[in-house]
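> forwarded from #structure-qc
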């Protein structure tokens, strides 16, 4: 009996040591709203949607102190549809899935499925709507598929030094030809007081390979984005410019929204955004933006979008929102007013909903 008690005490002590060294957090977002869309070939569409402001998700984030300022880190994040309860895409942790090491002085290296530096620049620095609601910059900027996240990626983030930080990402294509499908991302930023500036570049090789040689040699998709915001306290101003060149650099979220056959996406375009947020009382935030898409190809399928929204913090974790956006397509362009999780079906959309973070 004595030996049993001693064994239990030892195991309990070891368990407490392990718990002291490991920190695992369960986090997530549940976002659902009423969406009304107009202007597409589908007619008037009214629905309850998930992830209007921010994609609904559940995730696990962990760190382990390895000593000497070094830690092991991991993230596993899965998306789901709050309106139906089903997963929002194939795979278990399709949003993010990575593991790595982080140093307080040398930065972090992580491996797995991760956001690209260019998308993070768009969503966290450029867009006052934070890539959500009807005013999402994803409606006109080239932000879908591999431009948002990339699998099989090795990512390095530098520590913050006097406001400066950098990021390098290399995505292995894992095809028979070494360069086929690979992706390269770079980001450099500066943040100090009210100013936040970031420049990012993304290059994705569009070749596909079987055997010893690529089946087709395609041009690469290249995106350069410059973004900044500045907090004047009474208003926070946003501005961004993106240059997209090559197939897939600026894909259309819904290429058949207005016609039976798919409209070709531009392979050479410039996109400009100006926007602002302003506090309304103690809990409200007014959001506005204007985006212009300039197609430099012969078809010259330009578009512009204006959007207005309002978010109200009901608590530190729960907020309600309302937003409206309208796109003007020119010369057969097929851009749609979507939101954070949906491509949209027409040139106008209205959202109202609730988001809870845990």
């Amino acid at each position: 009996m004595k030996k049993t008690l001693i064994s239990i005490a030892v195991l309990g002590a070891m368990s407490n040591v392990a718990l002291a060294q490991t920190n695992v957090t369960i986090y997530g977002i549940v976002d659902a709203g009423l969406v009304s869309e107009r202007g597409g070939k589908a007619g008037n569409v009214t629905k309850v949607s998930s992830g209007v402001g921010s994609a609904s998700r559940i995730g696990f984030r962990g760190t382990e102190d390895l000593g000497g300022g070094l830690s092991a880190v991991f993230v596993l994040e899965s998306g789901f549809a709050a309106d139906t309860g089903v997963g929002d895409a194939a795979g278990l942790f399709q949003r993010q899935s990575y593991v790595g090491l982080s140093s307080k002085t040398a930065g972090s290296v992580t491996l797995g499925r991760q956001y690209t530096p260019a998308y993070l620049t768009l969503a966290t620095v450029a867009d006052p709507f934070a890539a959500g609601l009807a005013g999402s910059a994803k409606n006109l900027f080239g932000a879908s598929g591999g431009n948002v996240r990339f699998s099989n990626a090795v990512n390095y983030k530098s520590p913050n030094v006097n406001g400066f930080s950098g990021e390098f990402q290399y995505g292995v294509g894992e095809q028979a030809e070494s360069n086929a499908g690979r992706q390269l991302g770079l980001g450099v930023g500066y943040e100090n007081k009210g100013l936040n500036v970031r420049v990012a570049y993304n290059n994705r090789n569009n070749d596909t390979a079987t055997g010893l040689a690529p089946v087709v040699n395609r041009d690469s998709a290249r995106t350069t984005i410059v973004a900044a915001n500045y907090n004047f306290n009474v208003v926070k101003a946003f501005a961004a410019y993106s240059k997209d060149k090559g197939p897939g650099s600026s894909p259309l979220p819904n290429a058949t929204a207005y016609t039976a056959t798919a409209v070709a996406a531009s392979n050479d375009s410039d996109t400009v955004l100006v926007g602002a947020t302003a506090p309304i009382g103690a809990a409200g935030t007014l959001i506005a933006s204007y985006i212009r898409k300039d197609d430099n190809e012969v078809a010259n399928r330009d578009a512009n979008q204006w959007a207005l929204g309002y978010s109200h913090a009901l608590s530190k974790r729960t907020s309600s929102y309302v937003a409206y956006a309208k796109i003007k397509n020119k010369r057969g362009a097929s851009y749609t007013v979507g939101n954070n999780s949906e491509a949209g079906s027409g040139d106008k959309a209205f959202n109202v909903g609730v988001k809870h973070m845990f």
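QC bot note: The first strand starts at residue 22 and ends at 40. The CA atoms of residues 58 and 209 lie 35 Å apart.
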